[in-house]
User: Which sequence fits this backbone?
């Protein structure tokens, strides 16, 4: 199997390269000119906003499966740079879909990676969220990802392209940026252990319930969806068991090697925090047999160890 991962220099890309190459796949991966990719793959430069660069890579690699990870993936940045977010996430996806429609090779499968954020303002009692739930995106990033998924369905139907859509819920693991909660708490704890800050961890809303999956499980889901997902269908990827953010905090404190107190930071509280976001993951299980296997404790311990190592470098 020959895979092309578009936008592989980010958090998930490195894990997906490892997952696919370990499964014996030939892996090609793309990044922007100013980015780097390490791993068992052939690297190509590609800017998703430039359709000609996509066509060139498609026609030279001739992949069997394409994973589209390239994105402006930050909700916070999407408020500050809405045009850029739409340019990369929406126009970029159209560029890819057009390039696929015109490509010389016709039997390519494409997996479009979207987000659990697309569900947005969830109606009470809607959890666990099935893929058929109405999307009510609550921020610009989420709207662009919902749009990507809709475009994927439209191109699949209109041009008989083989496209699978994914809505990935929170995922975490070593090397994730510290704007995400598990990495954020682990970094703070590692800094406290290293004597780099006061023994106080700063937190936001601990009562919100979210669904967390280890990134290594998530990329395994992506591989299986590439192999077994049904064309034209959308799949939730998540654990299917939301936990309170307080549980993450307690686990980090349990692993920490110093006494740490907790301080609530009003700046970390979001006015419109949705109480629970939890996916129904029965569809991916039925079609691929995938379910999350790595425990949250393991993800947290590995992420904490990763920060400990990084702070020593
Ligand atoms: O923004 P940068 O410089 O970190 O680069 C990101 C890259 N990217 C692009 N690639 C090609 N053409 C563009 N015009 C373009 N703009 C940005 O896509 C980054 O290297 C990659 C996305 O990686 P992350 O932001 O680390 O996302 P992550 O966590 O790997 O998530 C993968 C996918 C994304 O579509 C998320 O929205 C979704 O999973 O949840």
Assistant:
């Amino acid at each position: 199997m020959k895979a092309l991962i578009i936008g592989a220099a980010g958090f998930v890309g490195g894990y997906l390269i490892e997952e696919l190459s370990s499964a014996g796949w030939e892996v090609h991966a793309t990044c922007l000119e100013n980015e780097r990719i390490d791993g068992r793959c052939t690297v190509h430069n590609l800017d998703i906003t430039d359709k000609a660069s996509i066509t060139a890579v498609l026609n030279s690699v001739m992949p069997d499966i394409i994973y589209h990870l390239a994105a402006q993936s930050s909700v916070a940045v999407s408020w500050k740079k809405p045009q850029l977010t739409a340019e990369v996430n929406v126009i970029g996806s159209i560029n890819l879909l057009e390039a696929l429609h015109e490509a010389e090779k016709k039997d390519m499968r494409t997996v479009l990676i979207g987000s659990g954020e697309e569900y947005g303002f969830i109606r009470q009692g809607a959890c666990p969220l099935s893929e058929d739930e109405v999307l009510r995106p609550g921020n610009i990033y989420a709207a662009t990802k919902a749009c990507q998924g809709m475009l994927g369905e439209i191109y699949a139907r209109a041009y008989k392209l083989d496209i699978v859509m994914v809505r990935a819920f929170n995922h975490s693991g070593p090397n994730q940026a510290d704007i995400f909660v598990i990495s954020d708490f682990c970094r703070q704890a590692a800094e406290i252990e290293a004597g780099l800050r006061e023994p106080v961890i700063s937190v936001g809303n601990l009562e919100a319930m979210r669904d967390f999956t280890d990134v290594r499980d998530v990329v395994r889901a992506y591989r299986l969806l590439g192999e077994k997902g049904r064309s034209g269908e959308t799949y939730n990827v998540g654990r299917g068991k939301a936990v309170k953010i307080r549980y993450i905090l307690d686990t980090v404190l349990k692993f920490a090697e110093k006494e740490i107190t907790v301080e609530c930071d009003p700046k970390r509280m979001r006015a419109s925090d949705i109480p629970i976001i939890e996916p129904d993951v029965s569809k991916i299980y039925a079609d691929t047999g995938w379910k999350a296997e790595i425990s949250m404790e393991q993800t947290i311990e590995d992420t904490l160890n990763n920060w400990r190592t990084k702070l020593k470098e």
Observations:
- The two ends are 37 Å apart (CA to CA).
